[in-house]
Amino acid sequence: NFTRATLAEEGRAVSTATATNMGEENSGNVRKDLANLFEQSLRVTVPNEANVEPLVAACTGKFGDYQCNNAMGLWQKIKGASDFKAPRAVGEALKNNLPHSDMVRSLEVAGPGFVNVVLSESWIAKTIQKMLTNGIQTWAPRISVAKVVVDFSSPNIAKEMHVGHLRSTIIGDTLARMFEFSNVEVLRRNHVGDWGTQFGMLIEFLFEMFPNWEDAKETAIADLQKFYKDSKKRFDEDPAFKERAQKAVVRLQGGEATYRKAWAQICDISRKEFDGVYQRLGIRLEEKGESFYNPYIPDVLEKLSNLGLVEESQGARVIRVEGFEIPLIVVKSDGGFNYASTDLTALWYRLNEERAEWIIYVTDVGQSQHFEMFFKAARRAGWLPADSNTYPRVSHVGFGLVLGEDGKRFRTRNTEVVRLVDLLDEAKSRSKATLIQREKDKEWSKEELDQIAEAIGYGAVKYADLKNNRLTNYTFNFDQMLNDKGNTAVYLLYAHARICSIIRKSGVDIEELKKTGEIHLDHPSERALGVHLLRFAETVEEACANLLPNVLCDYLYNLSENFGKFYESCQVVGSNEQTSRLLLCESTAVVMRQCFHLLGIVPVYKI
Ligand code: ARG
């Protein structure tokens, strides 16, 4: 639901900030800096239209690098009441009133009034050089939000951590990384499903199967998934067991020591398994599971009741929300709390205790209704402003299914769901096999081989996920994701390694060169590469504002393509332009590495 308006709003907030800081000249975000200039032009051109947003977009084509397309819309609004004869005249005026800037080489009005902007080559070169000297951090987006919660991964204890959780983990981590790069404080929250009625059944089964469970420690239930399944079977088949399980829930929730201990032990086993996956994928997370919020629920529900929001319905307590026939249940008819009461409480906690301004939930789209409903309940309570784009705000980042080759939900071999660890093992062993086939085991140490195989294997899994618009389903295919051609992590990692090797083989000290050398963009392919490098900051900012990592993947892939065209047509080592071109190589490598970093992919330096 992230419209252009969100982006425009973000853009405006930041552009006002930079406008007061004009001495600095540019923010790293070219689109925004140009929008800033056009905003000034708009104020002069149409003084009575104070609220008009500058509409500036990047374009590719022979006419320019960016384009302002305010003229046509403005014309529609003002044609009767102004001296302008045609939309094109508005465009001409916007062009003529644009303040002078080093950024711009030339301006041209085209068609019905587009203003095309051609960037100045020397300015592009200078800006890239500055980034090389001062670091990629100077191109970090400036986002007008101080603290963000990213609620992601969030598997359920004892149940399978499945591919859906893998998607949540990968997408959530990337979002967190993008915000962190943008100097936003990020609370990475693992909202683990560690509370609820399934624990009665699990604990009761534990007592039954392993009378000495305390001594046996976790070895008793090493295979927690199997344990879950068996206890579920027992629960469904034996009414007496079912009754005991239901009583166990009450005793657990009442805080009885033995039950708490058994619960903690079961959670611990799951946690170790999750941590294994996080470690392999390089994911940092702080667990605040459902149980954490449980003690706060009664208070929060009381606040909601006092506001008159909570009603009685068929023995349950509910909140009605606009647009839904069924209400949101917050206390079940048996008096127990549920997913919604926990989420409302977690939201309250995040807003009031943690003072987060933007709370982002990463789950499959199947949960959209849950989020929509409890967001609405929170709005009714006045916790959130009516306008969903105003802070504090909440966003549900939904994603589609992972499909198998048969077009059905992804499964491996005979298992019902895919075990994440098996997936990662296979990704690694496949990429290792390819490296060995290329006799890299003779060239590299055993550790290097392992490291690179992991970087490629896990990178491939992550990238195959992130490159798709998250809302679409995608097909999981090892052969495709591990292909070294096309839009894959392998292709991109190789491309980066090749650039590093060009620089290495030149024998030049690149750190020295950064201090003294100059970039020139004379060849069209050099210029195109330069312009694309400059688009990094606005791309990350768009990916953040719209919560869409695939935007960054597209950018990275295009960067690699642009580099390829440059390298094809421009000799680097041994040419007259060696210095400038080596610096372009280095800039590309730096930006590629930053993209990898944001996507949670470990770069490779040799191949
Ligand atoms: N544990 C849930 C599941 O596996 C996801 C939790 C998402 N976060 C939240 N605050 N509801 O489906």
Give the tags.
607 residues, Gyrase A, domain 2, alpha/beta, five-stranded parallel beta sheet, binds arginine
Q: Find the CATH superfamily of one domain.
A: Arginyl tRNA synthetase N-terminal domain
Unreliable stretches (pLDDT < 50, length at least 5) are 1-24
Q: Please indicate the percent range of residues in DSSP E strands (runs of 2 or more).
A: 5-15%
Quaternary structure type:
single chain
Set down the secondary structure blueprint.
Blueprint: H1 4-19, H2 30-45, E1 56-58, E2 66-68, H3 71-78, H4 87-96, E3 104-110, E4 114-119, H5 121-134, E5 147-151, H6 163-181, E6 185-190, H7 198-209, H8 213-216, H9 224-237, H10 239-253, H11 257-281, E7 286-287, H12 290-293, H13 297-306, E8 310-313, E9 316-319, E10 328-331, H14 339-352, E11 358-364, H15 368-380, E12 393-399, E13 402-403, H16 420-437, H17 440-443, H18 446-466, E14 474-475, H19 478-481, H20 489-506, H21 510-516, H22 524-534, H23 536-545, H24 550-569, H25 578-599
Parallel strand pairs: 5-6, 5-11, 6-7, 11-12, 13-14
Antiparallel strand pairs: 1-2, 2-4, 3-4, 8-9, 9-10
What do you see in this structure?
- The chain is α/β, with parallel strands linked by helices.
- Among the domains are: 4-119, Arginyl tRNA synthetase N-terminal domain (Gyrase A, domain 2), CATH 3.30.1360.70; 198-287, no CATH class.
- The chain contains 25 helices and 14 strands.
- The protein has helices at 4-19, 30-45, 71-78, 87-96, 121-134, 163-181, 198-209, 213-216, 224-237, 239-253, 257-281, 290-293, 297-306, 339-352, 368-380, 420-437, 440-443, 446-466, 478-481, 489-506, 510-516, 524-534, 536-545, 550-569, 578-599, and strands spanning 56-58, 66-68, 104-110, 114-119, 147-151, 185-190, 286-287, 310-313, 316-319, 328-331, 358-364, 393-399, 402-403, 474-475.
- The chain has a 5-stranded parallel β-sheet with strand order 7-6-5-11-12, with helices on both faces.
- The protein starts with a helix and ends in an 8-residue tail after the last helix.
- The structure holds arginine.
